[in-house]
Amino acid sequence: MARILVIDDDRAVSTVVLLLLERQGHEAVSANDGKQGLEILKRHEFDLLIIDIFMPGMDGFETIRAVRQNKPNMPFIVMSGAHNRPGPIPDFLHMATKLGAIASLRKPFTPQVLIATVTSRLGQSSEDRGRSSRPA
Length: 136
Known about the structure:
By secondary structure, the chain is α/β, with parallel strands linked by helices. The chain is built from five helices and five strands.
């Protein structure tokens, strides 16, 4: 199965996501913020990142940009609960897809939605990598 890094400052969300991923046979690791996530990425290889957009310090957008500098082909899924905030809100999930996110999750999401998104995107991601590594 896949090695997945979950970067989210909300420990409750991280714990649930890790548990759900591990139940599906994935190896999942968590980081509490973007800076810690980048440090983990320097030392370990992952097949997929799941990144929260709103985190203190280094937010999800900054983290994505930093990941793209060192691992431009790393697939990632973004998640956000921004729609729960008062007032007009930009579509942050759409903005993240413009940075290369292969999918987005709007918090709160169900376990079924998380697993379906990860499963479909991991298959899509490996097919894309396979196509790019095949000779033309």
